[in-house]
Amino acid sequence: MTDNSSDTNDWMQDLIAKSAAAKEKAYCPYSKFRVGAALLDMDGKIFTGCNVENASYPVGVCAERTAICKAVSEGCQKFKAIAIISDIDEDFISPCGFCRQAMREFQINDIVCAKSTPVNGLYKFRRHTLDELLPFSFGPEDLQRPKIGS
Ligand code: THU
Questions:
Q1: How is the chain split into domains, by residue range?
Q2: What are 105-140's pLDDT values in tens digits?
Q3: Residues with CB under 6 A from ligand 1
Q4: H-type alpha helices, the chain
Q5: Would you say domain 2-144 falls under CATH 3.40.190.10?
Q6: What distance lies between CA 132 and its chain's CA centroid?
Q7: Nearest residue by C-alpha to atom 14 in ligand 1
């Protein structure tokens, strides 16, 4: 984990700002917990996402997976980083387990978790590798391992 909360790195601030803009679109009448995500692909393209809830609660989708599904459905599968933001300022947002697993599928290895309000024009954030957030993970390669009885 890198506590880069005072990092002024431009591309990261831009990615967080885009996640904040996506958060404005959150559809969360049940939890009233808005989340935004911005996913940067290897060619510099950014896909945003917000949480989209449903009256049948388990059907709801998190912001991170909205962004991942948008990117993959547009033909992008290689990513540099994802930024995530909520309305919390007290601490950094932390992605849920489902979303960590979705990031694992596409090896999204730079996870930027921001606080809600910029300070002097800069978002505070914390950066994680995927392995930090999902150690000993299960992924596509595991399905290829030799199995007993075959
Ligand atoms: N949520 C996200 O969008 N991303 C996360 O990583 C954490 C949780 C959403 C799901 C639900 O709509 C709301 O936040 C409350 O759990």
A1: 2-144
A2: 999 999 999 999 999 999 999 999 999 999 999 999
A3: 28, 31, 33, 35, 51, 53, 60, 62-64, 95-96, 99
A4: 10-23, 63-73, 97-105, 130-133
A5: no
A6: 14
A7: 33
